[in-house]
Amino acid sequence: MAGFVNVRRDVDDKFYRYRMPILLTKIEGKGNGIKTVVPNMADVARALSRPPTYPTKFFGSELGAQTSVDEKNDRYIVNGAHDATRLRELLDAFIDKFVLCGSCKNPETDLILTKNEMIVRDCKACGERTNVDMRHRLSTYIIKNPPPKKGKKSKGGHAEAPSPPNKINGENGDPDGEENGAGSDDELTRRIKAEAAELNADTALAKEDWSADTSPEAVERRARALQSGIASLAVSNNGGDDDSDEDADSPYSQLGRWLQENPGSSAIDVFKKVQELGIEKKHKAVQVLAQGVFTEDVVAEIPKYVAIFAKMVTSEKHQKALLGGIERLAGLDYPDLVPSIPKILMQFYQADVLEEEVVKTWGTHVSKKYVDKETSKRVRKASEPFLKVTEHFRCTGNRAN
Question: Which residue of 90, 202, 237, 387 is most buried, as measured by CB atoms within 10 A?
């Protein structure tokens, strides 16, 4: 039976009132299927007053590994072989970032989402409210899966709570993200600024010339390519949307024309247009954006617009639509982009917009849904380097950067 340790393992006081079970691990499987199970994750999380999914996702983020959760059977898994010592160190880091009060370091805190979707630790000991690091990938997950409020208890020992007013579409909502609100423009601005702040001026990316060619010839060339792509836009209506893409007055056609007439628009302006058309929750809008907002400089342009996709892509269907837009962008509009497919996918993957399994399915199956069969084969085959890299890092437990 597992013993107990202080929540703050740097505190040696044996009378310290805040205790938690020692994190246990169990290695299962072998080869590419090896995984680390945390059998007492629910008990540890209960002691921290956090949903067990939070530390599990934190482990996956820090280790660059896929995670899986089966709350019904209390199964919390991190892909790859990870020893208990390493996971306990990461648990300490999770506690420091998402449990301890930033002022008095007391663990008696609740996570609260503010109206502008900032995450704060509300300390019951000193009364202070301190912000968590919104740049961490777990913060994005918490926004999509907000912490429960005190009240009715769930299986994991935490209360179930209604979603806050500005909750971003996520895993706990409608699978297609059609029912929940899309969030505020202020929040989108904050995310864009936060992501921009992460860029180190000394990095190779920062040294690249990200400016778009605005010469009349370049603008005309992009307009012709986009017009051609929009004119041939062919999206299946199997997804359940009522709008017809063949209708020149459909919101998708209107969005495509607006993007054509306003190249280089800011992310805020683009998202406001999507909201104005009332399609911010539609997967087809994601495809049109992916094909229409980018140019041949897509690798450099993704950081500018990635926050829009992070907000709008809330289901596997949305991810497939994004991949369809990328397929048309590279396959039809700018064929020279095909070799850059791995870089494009990696940027969306690292921003938590695309999931490895969805890209893997897409990259290993040819489809005529968005382009002709030969074009689909060429574009999807180009994703192989991305799939090999993510598979390697998933098996080794390291993070793909």
Answer: 90
> Looking at the structure, do residues 45 and 107 belong to the same domain, yes or no?
yes
Answer yes or no: do 92 and 220 share one domain. Answer: no
What are 83's two structure tokens? 């020893």
What residue spans of 208-334 are helical by DSSP H?
216-231, 251-261, 267-276, 283-292, 298-312, 316-328
Identify the DSSP state of 372.
Answer: -
What parts of the chain have a pLDDT lower than 70? 1-2, 150-248, 391-401
| pLDDT tens figures, 322-333 | 999 999 999 899
Query: What is the chain's alpha carbon radius of gyration, rounded to the nearest angstrom?
Result: 23
Contact 144, 168 (CB under 8 A): yes
242 and 384 fall within a common domain: yes
Give the count of beta carbons closer than 10 Å to the beta carbon of residue 18.
Answer: 15
Same domain, yes or no: 241 and 312: yes
* Tokens (6 digits) for 346: 């990696």
Q: Are 181 and 164 in contact (CB under 8 A)?
A: no
**In this structure, what CATH number is given to the domain that contains residue 28?**
3.30.30.170
> Can you give the residue range of the structural domain that contains 253?
185-396
